[in-house]
Amino acid sequence: MIVKTLLAALVAGLIAGVFMTAAQELRVVPLILHAEEYEGKEPGAEPPAGATEGQQQHSSLQGSSLIGEILSAISPITPAYAHEGEHEEGGIMFGMSRFSGTLLANLVAGAGFGLLLAGASLVFNHPITLRNGALWGACGWLAVHLLPAIGLPPELPGFPAADLHDRQIWWIATIVLSVAGLYLIVLRGEIAAKIIGLVLIAAPHVYGAPQPSDISSPVPAVLGAEFAVAALATTLAFWIVLGVISGYLNDRFLKPA
Amino acid sequence: MATTTVSSVPLSINDRITAGILALLIGGFLVFGAGLANSAVLHDTAHDVRHSYGFPCH
């Protein structure tokens, strides 16, 4: 029974991961590729040719992404991939294409988030069903994406950022506190629990996320805004798909007869 | 524990907590590997995913 529960979560995560890959390729990855054209340049430097006029920006975005996708699908390693000077070594695992790397990482992350969602539901003793699956997913998105994004919005390559380790610690702490806070607000009836939940959710933001000292960036702000919305929208879709599929599988295969 | 019924029964409290913690541990490990692990190869493979999910990256 334990294995069945975990398998259902795993399968839901893998399906959501495939879905997420498609969603990312449509909107998010083109923005990342576009931002990488600016990455490493000095702030205020000349933008790459073809991306100067506001009117052209969107068409060039589409064009470059198409070419980028084709290139990345063909070549084992995309040159713009490793951020120059940051890594001694690197490259994509097993010499896969950039797209396969993204797909693999989405499958792993999807399975991971699926298991985390199932684990939370088991520990809190509130089963995920087809009826409440979307709500479970939405809460997962709140805890893992929207609430941490208040302090650390999704960044494009080339964005200024504080020390990586500090940000990861803050990010994880915010998720843990947000999960606890959401549990107290959503699943507990007492008024006191709801108030404590709000305090838990607010605490990391009152403390403050690690911020870079210099916020100038070579990447255009418009790209950053488009990317932040695209990233949050695709992850919301991912979590709702994950929650609904988890609920469906639970109803179908785990429900007591 | 030796009773095996054909229709699946709801998890007992112990089983539920065990399964829950197991799921959290494995899930956390997978998400850590895809999103946070400080390895150049893992980073490059999962690069676009890390950015898309808003994981702290670089």
From TrEMBL, chain A:
It comes from the Bacteria. The chain crosses the membrane at residues 103-124, 133-152, 168-186, 191-207, 227-249. InterPro entries: CbtA_put. Keywords: Membrane, Transmembrane, Transmembrane helix. This is Cobalt transporter subunit CbtA. It comes from Rhizobium herbae. The lineage of its organism: Bacteria, Pseudomonadati, Pseudomonadota, Alphaproteobacteria, Hyphomicrobiales.
Automatic annotation (TrEMBL), chain B:
InterPro entries: CbtB_put. The chain crosses the membrane at residues 20-42. It comes from the Bacteria. Keywords: Membrane, Transmembrane, Transmembrane helix. This is Cobalt transporter subunit CbtB. It comes from Rhizobium herbae. The lineage of its organism: Bacteria, Pseudomonadati, Pseudomonadota, Alphaproteobacteria, Hyphomicrobiales.
